[in-house]
Design a protein that fits this description.
Elements: H1 10-30, H2 38-57, H3 60-69, H4 75-88, H5 91-98, H6 107-117, H7 126-131, H8 136-149, H9 155-161, H10 166-178, H11 185-190, H12 197-209, H13 215-225, H14 231-243, H15 247-258, H16 267-278, H17 284-290, H18 297-308, H19 351-359, E1 370-371, E2 374-375, H20 378-387, H21 390-403, H22 416-422
Antiparallel strand pairs: 1-2
Helix pairs in contact: 1-2, 1-3, 1-4, 2-3, 2-22, 3-4, 4-5, 4-6, 6-8, 8-10, 9-10, 10-12, 12-13, 13-14, 14-16, 15-16, 16-18, 17-18, 20-21
Amino acid sequence: MPLPSPSIIPAVVSQHVEEAASLRNLRSVLVRAPHVKLLQLGRLDERIAAHLDGVSVAGQAGAEMVQATLEQPGVGQLFVAAAGAIERRDSAQLSQLLGLVGVVDDAERALASAVGFVAADGLRGLTPQWLGSKTAVEQWLGVTACALHGVDPGQALQQAASLSDTRVRVRALRTAGDLGRIDMLQTCLRHLSDSDATVRHAAARSALLLGDRGAAPRALEDMAFASAVPAALSRAALQLLVLATDPPSARALVREMLNGPLDRRQPLRVAIEATGWSGEVCAVPWLIEQMEDPVHARVAGEAFSLITGADLTLLDLDRKPPDEPVAGPSENPEDDEVALDADESLSWPDPARVRAWWALQTPPADAGRLLLGAPATAETCERALREAAQSQRAAAAILRLLLEPGRVLFNIAAPAWRQQHALGLPVRVS
C-alpha cells in the first residue's frame, strides 16, 4: 500500500470512515422513527456528509482505507464505498460493489442508500449509462437512482418493468407509483398475478397510488391476510389498504383482524397500528384501553398520537416505564425470540391522564379520517411533512398521494436538505 501523503493523518481519516459507516447504520433506524423530526434528521445528515467529505479530501489514502473495510462489509461500509466511488467516477469500484448485489445481503440497501444520498449532479452521466445497460443490476441501480431523486426515466421505466429479473421488475413497478406514472397503471395491474409476492406487492402498491380502487385493494387485502406472505410485506400491504379505505370500513377491517390471524405473531399489535392509520376518532377510547396493557401500551400511544396529534411527553401524558421488564422479543441470543424492541423510543402513556385529556377535547364533527388532530386533507398532510415525526411523515406522504393520484411521492428518507428545499423550508447550514 502506498504511503499516505504527509498532510494526511491516518487515524483521523480512519475515524471519518468508521463514523460515516456507523452513522449511516443509525440513519436506517432514525429515518422512520417516531421520535425524530426533520430537524434532527438534518443534523445527522450533516454529520454523515462531513465524514464523507473527510474521506474524500484524503484522496487515495481515504479510498484505500474504505477498500480495506470491504473485507467484512456491512451496509455502512458499503454505503461509504459506493458514495466515494460515485464521486470519483471509479467504475472499477462500482463494478465490484454491483457484483455484491444478490451475494451480500446488505449490498442492495447500501447502494440504493448511496445513490439516494449523493447530490443529483454527482449522478449526471452515470444514471443514463446504468439505465441503458444490458446488465440487470445496473438497470436496477439506474431506476433506483431516478426513483430516489424523483426523476422520471421515461420509456426506460416501462422497459424495466417487463424484464425477467425480479429485482429490476420490483424496483420499476414501485417507481411507477412513486413518480406518478399513470400511463403505467395497466402495466401494474397486469403484474398483480405475478408468481412472486414482492412483485405482486409492488404492482398493487403502485396501482393503488396511481388511482385504482378495484383490483389493487383486493390484491393488497389478499396479501395482508395470506399466511404465506412475509410479515413485513403483510404489514405494508395492510397500511396501504387502511390508508386508502374510508375510516368506517377501515375500522371494520380492524375488527375482522381481531377475530382472525392476520399476523400470526402479534395480531393485536397490528390491529392497534391499523387503528392509528384508520384515523377514526371513534376508535380513540379503545386505544386508551390498550394503554393499560404494558405489552401494547406504547404502540397504542403512538396510534393515539397519529389520530389526535397529541405529543404525550410535551402534554405530560406519559409515565415512567414499569419496573418489571415487558414480555416480548429480547436481545438475548439464547432466547427463542430475538429482536430489538420496536417500541424502545416510544413514550409510555399514562392511561388515566390520557383519558382525562381526551375528555376535554372536541374532535371536529363529521371530520372523517383524522391525521394529527385535523381532517386528513392535502393541507394537513403537507403540514405533517413539515412538522411531524418521521413515522408520522411516512403515513402522511402516502395519504397525500392517495388523495391526489399522479403526484410524485414525497421521499421522507431523502437527505434532509433536499426535503427542506422541496418543502420550502430554510435549509439548515452548519
